[in-house]
Amino acid sequence: MSLRAPGLPRAGLGALIGVGLAYAITVVARALYGWDPVVDGEAVLQVALIGAPFGFLIGLGAFDYWFYWAAGRKTRPEDHSSHGAHSWKDYFRVNTDHKVIGIQYTVHSFFFLLVGGMFAMLVRAELAEPGMQFVNPNAYNGLFSVHASILIFLFIIPVFAGLANYVLPLMIGAPDMAFPRLNALSFWMLPMAGIMFLLSFLAPGGSFATGWTAYAPLSVDAPIGQVFFTIGVQFAGASSIATALNFLVTIITMRAPGMSFFRMPLLVWANFSTSLLVVIATPFIAASQFMVLLDRALGFSFFDAAKGGDVLMYQHVFWFYSHPAVYIMMLPGFGIISEILAVKARKPIFGYRMMAFSLLAIVVLGFTVWAHHMFVSGMQEWIRVPMMITTAVIAVPTGIKIFSWLATLWRGVLHLDTPMLFALGFLTMFTLGGISGVSLALIPFDIHVSDTYYIVAHIHYVLFGGSLFTIFAGVYYWFPKMTGRMFDERLGKWHFWTTFIGFNLTFGPMHLIGIQGMPRRVADYSQQFATWNLFISCASFVVGLSTLLFVYNMVVSWRAGARAPANPWRAMTLEWQVSSPPPIFNFDTIPTVVGGPYEYGVPGAVHGVFKGAEVKTTAAPAGAAPAGD
Amino acid sequence: MRGRPVLVMVIAGVVASAIGIALGLTIHWFPTEASTQLGDIKTLYDVIIIVSVPVFVLVMTVVIGAVVRFRMRPGQEDQDGPPIHGNTKLEVLWTAVPAALILGLCAYSYVVLRDAERAPAATAPKEINIAVKGQQFAWTFTYPKDVAGGKALSTTELVLPEGRSVKFDINSEDVLHDFWVPEFGMKIDAVPGITTHYRITPNRLGTYPVVCAELCGLGHSVMRSTVHVVTEPQFKKWLGGQNKPAAPQGASPAQLAAAGKQIFTGASGCSGCHTLSDAGATGQIGPNLDQVLKGQSDAMLHQDIVDPNAAIAKGYGPNIMPQNFGQTLSESDLNALVAYLKEATQ
Ligand code: HEM
Ligand SMILES: [Cu+2]
């Protein structure tokens, strides 16, 4: 418990120092300008929200290496003392092992799934009957705003980064990520953002209550709780940009000899595409929130129409990030599903190259559709039709993927275990989400249903039936690799069926009440929607309970499940060719890739062979020897 | 042997699609149709159902068919499927067909959109132009001079004649709102700093709700009003009955208070947020006026309205009540309100 060694205690101290510094800075700055009163709570808080996380990270030791290096002191570059986990305590330290970071990310994200899910339960409890019962309208708006923000920025986006962090280096035959310290830093920025979102409930005036979209000018005028969102999102965004750069460099430079681009598993392709999206798009949400911050803190008037500001600019900048963000929340899942379907159907992925190209097509098209969120925003009318066409056209590469997966199933030998069930559930539910997505591209229909429960239904078919199902599928699929234990198959199946049924009963009827005229984001609604809302709330509690089955299964299996063999699924990709869990530097000998990743049913086919040199623990990047295939 | 199960799936798929489409078309998805625009949108939705049900059924049938036919049976634990890598013809087909379907839908939507937004023909009855103002948390509608008979008319409820095209010019006092009558189908945001528009032609007599569809803060869900679609003669009659000054010069205190009550329950939206038993208001967002206004002087009441942050009731935060009533209400309106609040709470 030394406050001088890096670790959580010093991190706490660092955060406190950060707050103190923020206080001092604002007081001094205000004194210099002769402003009175010298102490302004809002100003201190804004600076503290930026200062405290940095104090925390420094205290935690996330920057130690760089500080040593900058100060010309002796660094410990390659001893990897912070590599690998030997006890559970190691998961609470800065660690540079991608496998440890992967688990840190994943467990941390699931914690926030539970928190965000809790908020959903409260939202549904309030909506079970018309009128206000448990919370006041302000608290209600806060609940659904934090629900959405947490699930997007602290669950879906990071959990994909977590799963990929664990398996991607293994899959491409690399000993680690390209920048292990940056990787650790990326992870540790997330708890900051999460804590900020939750602390916002303590702010005077309540938590941020303007939705996860935080539209100006409401967010500029909102009580101080809004700043917790404005700044929290910056940390979450910085985290994903750093991770994405790390993935890009890792994929480009660290593939095992023989792994050409067209021998990469589709999960690698998917993360490659996602990372491109993140690197290009995420700065835009940072920009939108910086503008809000400047409006709030320094009286800039980006969004103040009375002073010549442009209210619609917020939405253009915001959606230029947030539309691509929906693909940031989908593409990694596409990768997971491709891995699982090929292995569980015992067949090569049908149309592998088209699968890879369609990912890239989605990346490109994803940047051309942002204004389809703005059909009723009052923007220039002429943008609408081109946006309708590009939006609808994205369905084509997405359709290619779905049909290729279907063709992969056909004539396979289907192992219908839990990962496979979630994969099939994803296929069907995501199709529905995609179809309602196309309907929303059609402007006249969108005009009627935008900002209604039809949108809430669509969001959840895509994010819950889509992303979350792929996440569950992936967690079950790689659970043996990560923990060295098998999960309880029977509980897994129960989890799938209760989730699948509860999910459809919850979100299916929302399409109907949306079209009938129930606006979204309302704390109260008219009597005509009462019956369906009660029904929906009851169904949502089933989903809530089903999640507990999952948590129970994971915790118990991790502690006492049967030992997992190296390759329980008889998969071909490289991560399954090493022990479960893998050795500390992933591979004892460097693999050489000699074939495609999914050659199931091809007699004698293998993806990689292990007969090269021993891996040295100094592990220089293996380099990608380009090889034709 | 191999062809038959596929045949079964095709038949099952066609039957399921037919049932799905029939079901989709019989469900009452939409609210009562009260404008020609919503009528066109409903037709578009029917087309969406007809196109998308078979797509969904196709995916479902293949998944279920594969699960039934190709599930691993005991003894197959170590078997693999045939190593099929692709089929160019099939891939071209499933790229081209969806692309064609989608472009067709887009073209049709474009036609619907153009029809919905087109100005009425010169031969049609003259279009009415109504200004809509969104404000936390109420709507105000202003009829132009030529319609209202010499003097612009502002109301808090909307009255429209059946069969005449209406063009709404919409703007906002404070934050984003969204002006929506579900029965009319169309909607658009009220954006501070710009004026947005849409038009509808009411085609059914009745009373329908006006709602705000864009999150606008605390009172978002109570930002509601009403629209009455009436016949042309009724509309004329209603216009004639309006436009009497609410509180004429030199009004008696009782007249003043009556005018204040109208403002309280109507245009300014006070009753959406506050409880006041005299006005039958039950809002939960702001303080209960029956309790907090007891014994306040005229000056304090005045200040409560124009500068709500000056004195905040216990348990409520600053900046919840709109700050701009001082600008949006005239001095005589304010006097009427104060007179009314005084009478109602003391
Ligand atoms: C049982 C599980 C869930 C329930 C019952 C639930 C419930 C809700 C409800 C009722 C809303 C509407 C709030 C409103 O517009 O008034 C909402 C919004 C939202 N939810 Fe969920 N949710 C669940 C799970 C999820 C998951 C897993 C995700 C994402 C991964 C998610 C993401 C969102 C988003 C992005 C919104 C949009 C919020 C907005 O309108 O700003 N939800 N949820
Ligand atoms: Cu509003």
TrEMBL record, chain A:
It comes from the Bacteria. InterPro entries: Cyt_c_oxase-like_su1_dom (IPR023616), Cyt_c_oxase-like_su1_sf (IPR036927), Cyt_C_Oxase_1 (IPR000883), Cyt_c_Oxase_su1_BS (IPR023615), Cyt_c_oxidase_su1_bac (IPR014241). PROSITE patterns: COX1, COX1_CUB. Keywords: Cell membrane, Copper, Electron transport, Heme, Iron, Membrane, Metal-binding, Respiratory chain, Translocase, Transmembrane, Transmembrane helix, Transport. The chain crosses the membrane at residues 12-33, 45-67, 105-123, 143-168, 188-215, 227-254, 266-286, 318-342, 354-375, 387-409, 421-443, 455-479, 491-514, 534-555. Belongs to the heme-copper respiratory oxidase family. This is Cytochrome c oxidase subunit 1.
Automatic annotation (TrEMBL), chain B:
InterPro entries: CcO_II, CcO_II-like_C, Copper_CuA, Cupredoxin, Cyt_c-like_dom, Cyt_c-like_dom_sf, Cyt_c_oxidase_su2, Cyt_c_oxidase_su2_TM_dom. Residues 21-120 form the Cytochrome oxidase subunit II transmembrane region profile domain. Residues 255-345 form the Cytochrome c domain. It is a multi-pass membrane protein. It is found in: Cell membrane; Membrane. Keywords: Copper, Electron transport, Heme, Iron, Membrane, Metal-binding, Respiratory chain, Translocase, Transmembrane, Transmembrane helix, Transport. It comes from the Bacteria. This is Cytochrome c oxidase subunit 2. It comes from Capillimicrobium parvum. The lineage of its organism: Bacteria, Bacillati, Actinomycetota, Thermoleophilia, Solirubrobacterales.
